[in-house]
Amino acid sequence: MKYKLLGRSGLKVSELCLGTMGFGTEAGWGADKAASFAIMEAFANAGGNFLDTANIYKLGTSEKIIGEFIQPRDRDFFVIATKYSLKDNTTNPNASGNNRKNMMRSVEASLKRLQTDFIDVLYLHIWDDLTPIDEILRGIDDLVRQGKVNYAAISDTPAWIVSKGNTMAELMGWSPFIALQVEYSLLQRSPERDLTPMAKHYGMTVTPWAPLAGGALTGKYLKGGQGRVKPESNRRDENSVRITRVVMDIAEKLGVEPSHVALQWTRQQGFESIPIVGATRLEQLQENLRTLDLTLSPEDLRILDEASAIDLGFPHKFFREEGVRQNNYGGFYDKIVPRS
């Protein structure tokens, strides 16, 4: 396992992030404590140090299991990322949302469940379209100054809001968002319209969730396998099946698993990306770790890109029109080297 810097920070995290949403057996699925321990042990033995959880995962059981696993081990080896925003109770209107009151309450509860004095990376989980971004930034910055949080990050939020937040953080001297967590895969490329270009501009690492589209990109549903993705889901519609077959064809040609191709594709985009690989069985993690041995060729990337291409819409398609390029660049478009 190699390590990458998370966003514009000096924090070193593993090339893959272990998703722990399935740690716990609430709702009739997931890994029990023993299986979760085995998965984390194997991940750590492979050099993995980046763990992703949230206050709401398995009603808090995910954080509890992580806390029990790490408590007798070297806390400083692990980089624990958790989230606040979503409800962990329904007793009052401020027990959910992005507001400062819920942030402070949720973080204190997470610290207790994780049995730690600090959270390495705190994500805002989902934008609530109510709380001012300056309230959020100032709240997280206060937690950083208190030593309860080391770094700020954000998930599932419109690009313009994240952009405003990071600009404001820079002007005010507050802790900026260093990572952006969004759904991103060969079956979900809409973040390419604004979110991933924004992340690249601000030097944020993208941490894709569902990089295998709930297992659809492994090809298991095409082989008659079962899972939590319903047949009526758009992850299993005609277009998704077509893309998955391309993934499977490339995997067969390379002698690897389709999951390796799908995961590696997210790692070879034009921005920093560390996919979140969830696992409820040890063999799932072991298979995902083998992704690190694969590098996709430019030709394979081209085939995958073309098969999964989306309509970027306005203004992105407009910018690419030949007449617009002629007017914008005076015929020199192909002779100008853009910033990396």
What is the domain tally? 2
Q: Output the strand order for the largest sheet.
A: 9-8-7-6-5-4-3-10
How would a textbook summarize the main sheet? 8 strands, parallel
Dominant shape: globular
Termini separation: 26 Å
Strand segment count: 10
Overall radius of gyration: 20 Å
Task: Outline the low-pLDDT stretches.
Answer: none
Quaternary class = single chain
Can you walk through the features of this model?
This protein is α/β, with parallel strands linked by helices and 340 residues long. It folds into 2 domains: 3-308, TIM Barrel (Alpha-Beta Barrel); 310-340, no CATH class. Helices cover 39% and strands 12% of the residues. The protein contains 12 helices and 10 strands. It has helices at residues 33-45, 61-70, 100-114, 133-146, 159-172, 195-201, 238-254, 258-267, 282-289, 298-308, 316-320, 322-329, and strands at residues 3-5, 12-14, 17-19, 50-52, 79-84, 119-124, 149-155, 177-181, 205-206, 276-278. Helix 2 crosses helix 3 (100-114). It starts with a strand and ends in an 11-residue tail after the last helix.
Give a quick rundown of the structure.
The protein is α/β, with parallel strands linked by helices.
